[in-house]
Design brief:
single chain; 142 residues; alpha/beta; Rossmann fold; six-stranded parallel beta sheet; 6 helices
């Protein structure tokens, strides 16, 4: 399976390493050259030596998405640090390029719900944190 991940921060780079270790073909697109270091960190081989692909570019530019391999992506993961960017590129991946499995990180829980209702698979770390705190509070109160 070919996985394209946009954003090589803590989340994107960890998911990329995990997907590559699981035997998937993985391409990462990020606008910061230094983010490549996260892909190499703690690894025996460099990202490219392990058959990972890294593209330096802005995900809002179609040429960068194409260079990173969006036209053949089975899975597209939008994991930049901006909700707006993630939502725009997720919709581009889904609608323009026809990627069947699009996952998008959305920090704002209300927006995550709304875009989820529009057909995007949203993941909200904020919502997850709220649920964990509520569960811990309920357990402590009981």
């Amino acid at each position: 399976m070919f996985v394209l991940i946009v954003g090589a921060g803590r989340v994107g780079s960890a998911v990329a390493k995990s997907a590559l270790a699981a035997g998937h073909e993985v391409s990462v697109l990020d606008e910061d050259q230094l983010s490549h270091e996260r892909l190499d960190a703690g690894q025996r081989d460099s990202w490219e030596e392990a058959d990972g692909q890294f593209t330096l570019g802005t995900a809002l530019e179609t040429d960068a998405l194409i260079q990173a391999g969006i036209e053949r992506a089975d899975v597209f993961i939008a994991s930049t640090d901006g909700d707006n960017t993630n939502l725009i590129i997720a919709q581009i991946a889904q609608r323009r390029f026809g990627v069947a499995n699009v996952l998008v990180r959305v920090m704002d829980p209300a927006r995550a719900v709304w875009y989820g209702e529009q057909g995007l698979h949203t993941i909200s770390p904020t919502k997850h944190a709220i649920e964990m705190f509520e569960s811990a509070l309920a357990a402590d109160a009981g």
